[in-house]
Amino acid sequence: MNVAGRLGLGTAPLGNLFTAISDDEADATVLAAWEMGVRWFDTAPQYGHGLAETRLGRVLPGLPRAEMTVASKVGRLLRPVSPRPPTIFRDVPLVDPVFDYTRDGVLRSIEESLIRLRLDRLDVVHVHDPDDHEQAALDGAFPALIELREQGVIGAVGCGMNQAEMLQRFVHEVDLDVVLLAGRYTLLDRSGEPLLEECAARGVGVLLGGVFNSGLLAEPTVDATFDYSTAPAALVDRAQRMQRVCAEAGVALPAAALQFALRHPAVQTVLFGARSADEVRTDVAHAEATVPDDLWPALEAIR
Hints:
Elements: E1 7-10, H1 23-35, E2 40-42, H2 51-59, E3 69-74, E4 76-79, E5 96-99, H3 103-117, E6 122-128, H4 134-150, E7 154-161, H5 165-173, E8 178-182, H6 193-202, E9 205-209, E10 225-226, E11 229-230, H7 233-248, H8 253-263, E12 267-273, H9 277-288, H10 295-300
Parallel strand pairs: 1-2, 1-12, 2-3, 3-6, 6-7, 7-8, 8-9, 9-12
Antiparallel strand pairs: 4-5, 10-11
Helix pairs in contact: 1-2, 1-9, 2-3, 3-4, 5-6, 8-9
């Protein structure tokens, strides 16, 4: 498989994460990913409060369905809420994510996602961010998804989180096919490594998101973000030192960040977010860039 075949398009930016884009820009982003060889598309009702799924639904039905993998998530239903809570998505539909990890909530969520996506099935369904709802997910969401998988309604069952500890418990307790770990296995944060090793031992696929830690490893400026908040000065300094080492080797820091994630043998797919066709092409080029083997120990030494 070529490198692009191990990449997936994360669609939070298509849901106007932080900044609004047009439908035409979103269409061009998805089509550019397809043209570059990306075949995995990761979305969720939360992303743009349904907007990301709706935008995928403008493009994906016109592409060969058998060649793509489409993953969405359950655990949040989109419902009118008054007063509306704050959101990091801009210019979104007048509905808001409401936590629901029950069996009925799972079934409704999948049905509504398929309508927005204009598809008849999902290849992968993740339980989304059950950080404060662990038991509800174990009692409701996971059994419902496993039942749907056994019926052939969905292809695979996963869980997507920004923490590794609970995911590791789920790998032990639930018959998962895949996990999606965001931000916890990167050049700056290796805390998810025990989870990756556990998944490798158990034959559970690993998808990695957040490999730029929301921006710091893409452009390590003093006002960069780390996990969607202002990056601490010590982390900015560390990322800048990594950037200098990469530059001496003729490698862009984002290329090293992407390829670090791809190097782990447990990792099946690495997700990257993009809000334009140019960003897609840049990230795929980073994933395909030549990185000398001696760069990795040099980066490992930066603490």
